[in-house]
Amino acid sequence: MSTIDSGDGDPDIWAKTCGREDAYHRIDNWYPDIEQWTFRTVIMDMSLDEAMAIKKHCEIAHLWLRNRGCERLLKIDESPSSKLSKDQIRKLTKKAFEFSLEDYVECDEWLRQDLGPDKWALLDDLERRLDEAIAPFREAGNAAFVKLSTRSPKDAAFAIGRPFELVKRMMAQSTLAPGTPEADIEDLVIFTRAAIGCLAVRTGAEAMMLLRRSDRVKADIGMAELMAQKNFRMSLVLREWNASIKPEWEFRVFVIQGRLTAATQYSNIVYVPEIAQQKDEIKECIMSFWEKVQGNIRTPHYTIDLALSPDLKEVVIVEINGPPPSAGTSLYDWNKDEDRRQIMAGETFELRVMTHPRKGAKDEIHQPLRRYIERMRAGLDSGQDEDEDEDEDEEAVVEPALKLEQNTSDLPNTAQRDQKTDRGCSVQ
To answer: Between these two residues, 383 and 233, which has the higher pLDDT value?
Structure first.
């Protein structure tokens, strides 16, 4: 996933690229043009009341989780008499805001009472409609990817499902020894596949969990509400999951004034030796595919994400977005003049891929999942839950330091509640 999303939250950029009903970069508008080259898709209407119920749920849940994290912070013993080192306190402070699936479930149970019956009725009806829309995919043995007309709830990947189960399944097939360069590369590939695999939904309930737990969804609904003149229009989109696609083989391509200017490996943390070795062949593959489809795309400026098969025999359009800066630029730095010039006015088409492993890449991924991957790699997994710490020594420190009682109330004080990619299998 690109870590650069310069346009997020900018109302002017958002309005131009996807805020208006007729904005081409909304999937409602580009999907019919390239349907034969992308994932089977169902587009559902969503009322303003339904959207506001989702947004309200997101807002209250965010505050509930923040309150839970603050409760944990207050129980960390930072007194001079504490036996905790500064480094241990720093780790515990960060861990206080690492939420498990159980935290989200507790939050939902509390929200059942706090959100109100009218809004829950809207959410329950929306869940039913989503389940009906997913049914054809499910009956064909596939899952679905859920998103808004604008963006997906990829930021909620770890708030649903069990990424640890996906990691465990993939690690069971690995024969690489811990500490080797090959193992480090594979660890990042496994992380990426697990993070994206969490977004596959098979029921309306799973789809709603993602939507209700996503800050991206909350932000886009809020922006659409502000931008609406007379009629609010935001659709829910379900895309058929393609499990054969490998997310590390996704590329982001930039088209300006109808010209192919630049492309980049979508991930800026996953080094894939085969991609580096086949850079020229991949470049030709992208150019050839774009020549075939570009006449169907009815806008001169856009970003198009492509998923390639490792043998380069198949190419699938993942999605179409607006041009930078509303779209992330991955291996290009939008703040550098030369990079921005290449994307916006490059004389010749350029492709960038990772040519070596990135130092510190593991520091940028979801740390509980990183710890679990490292435990699995070292052969230390004994079936313990992901919320437990990675070794007995640290576990002995964490429990007394946090002093978490089993029956501590989850309910924050109401007066205190005022208020961080489309993809059949890749994150949109």
So the answer is: 233
Res. 409 pLDDT band, cuts 50 70 90: very low
**Look-up of token digits 């811990």:** 178
pTM score over 0.90: no
Q: Is the pLDDT of residue 1 over 50?
A: no
**pLDDT tens, position by position, 163-205:** 889 999 999 999 999 999 999 999 999 999 999 999 999 999 9
pLDDT of res. 241:
97
